[in-house]
Amino acid sequence: MTPTPNAPAPPLLQARGLCFARNEEPVFGPLDFELGPGEALLVLGGNGAGKTTLLRVLAGLLGASAGEVFLSGRPVDRGHLARGSAYLGHLPGHKAELGALENLAFHRALRGDATGADLERALTDVGLSGHEDSPARRLSAGQNKRLALARLRLQSAPLWLLDEPYANLDLDGIALVNHLIQEHVRAGGAVLLTTHGAYAAPPVPVRTLTLAPARSPA
Ligand SMILES: Nc1ncnc2c1ncn2[C@@H]1O[C@H](COP(=O)(O)OP(=O)(O)OP(=O)(O)O)[C@@H](O)[C@H]1O
């Protein structure tokens, strides 16, 4: 279909009637929201409200029970979501025996990414200079989070899904996350993030989505 001249660009991410249930017990939804390029959406809700589950659905790691998700105006399935987003979860997902640099190279090869980005520079940028050869299993929780941030930044996905990105980080690390979010959003990307620490809100236009207890089907 030919786009209408001067038509507003569709949101980068849109959810309509999105629900997730486990064993017929609703976890969240129905949710309707959208996120444009250059925006961040802070997902709020108490422990167990379904924030992580929502991010995993949007990352294509779990299938929604109902509803639709659109990327740049097109309805997408789980495979498209997995390819169109970069997910930072609670677990860093590194190969424990590989060094920090090897982990970045491994994930780049896995994605078939041929950008040729400087991986040593990527480690330096997240404060891991000097840890190039350290196996991931020997990195601290905060250093593992920093390595995951380096991986995130090397991906070209426009949509970032960040689950508790500030967890385990010192003040300098919190500022690093905010810098990366700001850089990504200014480049036209979008970020959906969860956090329990209001102090860490990134310095970009932020909207909020509060997950209320899910409604049981009538
Ligand atoms: N693997 C699982 N198997 C069964 N139930 C699960 C599983 N993971 C999460 N749940 C349940 O799903 C609900 C939502 O969990 P989720 O982790 O999405 O919440 P959350 O808002 O991210 O919580 P928190 O703020 O504590 O991290 C909770 O009731 C939780 O017990």
TrEMBL record:
**Which PANTHER family does the entry link to?**
ABC TRANSPORTER I FAMILY MEMBER 1
Pfam families per the UniProt record, alphabetical: ABC_tran (PF00005)
A single GO molecular-function term is: transmembrane transporter activity
The record's PROSITE patterns line, in alphabetical order, gives:
ABC_TRANSPORTER_2 (PS50893)
Record SMART domains: AAA
Q: Does the keyword Translocase apply?
A: yes
Q: Where is the ABC transporter domain?
A: 13-218
Q: Which NCBIfam families match?
A: ccmA, PRK13538.1
The answer to whether keyword ATP-binding applies is: yes
Q: Which gene encodes it?
A: ccmA
Q: What keywords sit in the KW lines?
A: ATP-binding, Cytochrome c-type biogenesis, Membrane, Nucleotide-binding, Translocase, Transport
GO biological process per UniProt: cytochrome complex assembly
Q: What is this protein called?
A: Heme ABC exporter ATP-binding protein CcmA
